[in-house]
Amino acid sequence: MQLDGTLAYISLGSNLGDRAGNLLLAVRGLIEADLAVRRLSTIYETEPVGIDTDLKFLNMAAEVVVKDVKPSQMLARLLRIEYLLGRGDRPPGAKKPRTVDLDIIFFGSQVIDTEFLTVPHPRMHLRKFVLRPLAELIPNFVHPVLKTEVVELLAASEDRSAVHRWSPNAHTKGEAAA
Question: What is the CA radius of gyration of the chain?
């Protein structure tokens, strides 16, 4: 099958408010930003990693086809989606609860290292909440820097945080029962 564009992978997460609704709105935002959503992973409920909160996240991955969009332009579109969904201003590197978090994990097999963007995501191989959804979509994709398949990165991960398939009928702290 001929692909007209570049396959990119985005990690999506939310741990404030209607977490599932936030992910749905973020996917809609990707579509409205002319990023052709091709496939979505299962949604996983995950423990927060590196953030001072006990509010669990919902995480997933999206495979998008990017045509005539540079990685820096894609980052700008993702930041706009985050802003529109209530992320607001935050200092660079701030690790706080959020309505939505969107990160470029892979942009084809490109390696990008600028002041504003690093791809592949520099910590993706350390985070099961990123690796598990990615392994579902692209288990045999070889990380262009680490030269290791995604499924192997997941198996070798030292991250011991809980990552479970999300059930919309189960409620956790941070999300009230309907």
Answer: 15
3-class SS letters over 102-171: EEEEEECCCCEECCCCEECCCCHHHCHHHHHHHHHHCCCCECCCCCCEHHHHHHHCCCCCCEEECCCCCC
Domain ranges, residue 46: 6-165
Structurally, how many domains does the chain consist of? 1
Q: 31 with 2: CB under 8 angstroms? A: no
The answer to whether residue 1 sits within a structural domain is no
Catalytic residues: 87, 98, 101, 103
State pLDDT tens for residues 109-135: 999 999 999 999 999 999 999 999 999
Cα–Cα distance for residue pair 15/70, rounded to 1 Å: 29
Asked whether the beta carbons of 117 and 136 are under 8 A apart, the reply is no
Asked if residue 172 is part of any domain, the answer here is no
Q: Report pLDDT digits (tens) over 93-103.
A: 566 778 999 99
Asked if the structure places residue 178 within a domain, the reply is: no
Is residue 170 in a domain? Answer: no
Predicted pLDDT of residue 178: 40
Q: For residues 53 and 60, what is the distance between their CA atoms, to the nearest angstrom?
A: 20
Residue 13, classed as helix, strand or coil, is strand
- Indicate yes or no: pTM above 0.85: yes
